[in-house]
Amino acid sequence: MNQQDLSKRLVYSFVNINLLTQALTHRSFSAQNNERLEFLGDGALNFMIAHQLYQRFPTISEGDLSRLRAQLVKESTLCEIAISLDLGNTLMLGEGELKSAGWRRPSILADAVEALIGAVYLDGGFAAAEGLVAHLFANKLNTIDPKVIDKDPKSLLQELLQGKKIAVPEYTVTHLDGEAHAQVFIVECWIEKLNIRTDGEGTSRRIAEQQAAQLALEKLKK
């Protein structure tokens, strides 16, 4: 799929086509890559989804709005959107990423979606970017149910332990690998009273903590 086909799927035509090219360029391919656009798009996306939810659900609390946003703005959702756009076939990747099928890697696909949002914001302004977000997330926004809010593993674990009058877990970074732009965190979740230890791994401390909490939940359910 070429960039023109992608523009049709985005329902947006770039004035500055170089922004679209940059949004599709991974750091492994060029120093002129999509990392800065991804940073901008991440911030814009969080605000725009918050705006959409605020308008759609005028009576629910700030906490529930935050949880709804977390259900929508996450790697798995962005990856689904990228796959629906066939985004992997338009990405420019270095030789190493091509050999390791980087065009299918969820983190790369998710980052590219955020970079596209950042690129549209710079190219067409706030309204254009929010229009793109509304288009990309239309199905998710139309079907999300505020009565069924998914809580993250850390929250679920904390609630479960508090219900049993057990102290909340301690989370400790035990290992950190990789260069600054591609770090991998190993985090230990320690529930002292139950003598439960689990290790989570992720590209951020938060992701690693959530994985460790999920493993602890699974141990508690056995």
Characteristics:
222 residues, mainly alpha, Ribonuclease iii, N-terminal Endonuclease Domain, Chain A, Double Stranded RNA Binding Domain, 2 domains, three-stranded antiparallel beta sheet, 3 strands
Number of strands: 3
The coarse silhouette is globular
Low-confidence stretches: none
Please tell me the overall pLDDT.
Answer: 90
Oligomer designation: single chain
Order of helices and strands: HHHHHHHHHHEEEH
CATH topology of the largest domain: Ribonuclease iii, N-terminal Endonuclease Domain, Chain A
Helix fraction, binned, reads 55-70%
Computed structural class: mainly alpha
* DSSP helical segment count: 11
Distance between the termini: 47 Å
Number of domains: 2
Biggest sheet character: 3 strands, antiparallel
Radius of gyration based on Cα positions: 19 Å
Main sheet strand line-up:
1-2-3
Give the CATH architecture of the largest domain.
Orthogonal Bundle
CATH homolog superfamily of the largest domain? Ribonuclease III domain
